[in-house]
Amino acid sequence: GENVEQHPSTLSVQEGDSAVIKCTYSDSASNYFPWYKQELGKGPQLIIDIRSNVGEKKDQRIAVTLNKTAKHFSLHITETQPEDSAVYFCAASPYNFNKFYFGSGTKLNVKP
Amino acid sequence: EAGVAQSPRYKIIEKRQSVAFWCNPISGHATLYWYQQILGQGPKLLIQFQNNGVVDDSQLPKDRFSAERLKGVDSTLKIQPAKLEDSAVYLCASSSPRRTPFGNTIYFGEGSWLTVV
Q1: Contact assessment for residue A66 and residue A8, using Cβ atoms and an 8 Å cutoff
Q2: Which one of A44, A91, B43, B85 is at 20 to 30 Å from B112 when CA atoms are compared?
Q3: Smallest CA–CA separation between A42 and chain B, in Å?
Q4: What is the pLDDT of residues A11-61, one digit of tens each?
Q5: Measured between CB atoms, which of B42, B103, B111 is closest to A93?
Q6: How many C-alpha atoms does B6 have within 13 Å on its Cβ side?
């Protein structure tokens, strides 16, 4: 089955700096890659996703890049704000299955 | 559009007791998932339903966990008897039927927090 690895496990940045979280996957059949943000005491919320027919997607301060050859994808947050502090999860979903495999999470701390 | 609803939000039980969690998915979502999230880890799939049929329950500890989705809408996850290691957040999620070659977005509820003492 699919195996998703996520790094780093914790990330501390100064407000206004950029943050990058990286994930790798093992199954070349995976073609959909969502990112979730989980705040304390809440369920994961989708913040951005990318499908394998594109290499990059942006939504305001958030962007995701995908390298299918290397089987890795990354989340980029620019101009970080304290409210970006949360745990972020990446996930991969193989073609033809409605299954999702999650990374272990990155705790992002944005210091004011 | 209403999100995925879960209850109860918090539950504390003693080991060997039983507990049940309820989930109501987003209207029209045929696929329903139960995930277990242990503190500091990513969600782990317990069971996946397509309408009222089980698609995948390979990670469900069937000696103590059971789940059902009668009528293809609401779902209940039960643990009996509970063990200390069952302390976790139980997340319900749902997605609409796949209509493209790519995966469909899944939406999570707020989770049911279980503490077994």
Answers
A1: no
A2: A91
A3: 5
A4: 999 999 999 999 999 999 899 999 999 999 899 999 999 998 889 999 999
A5: B103
A6: 27
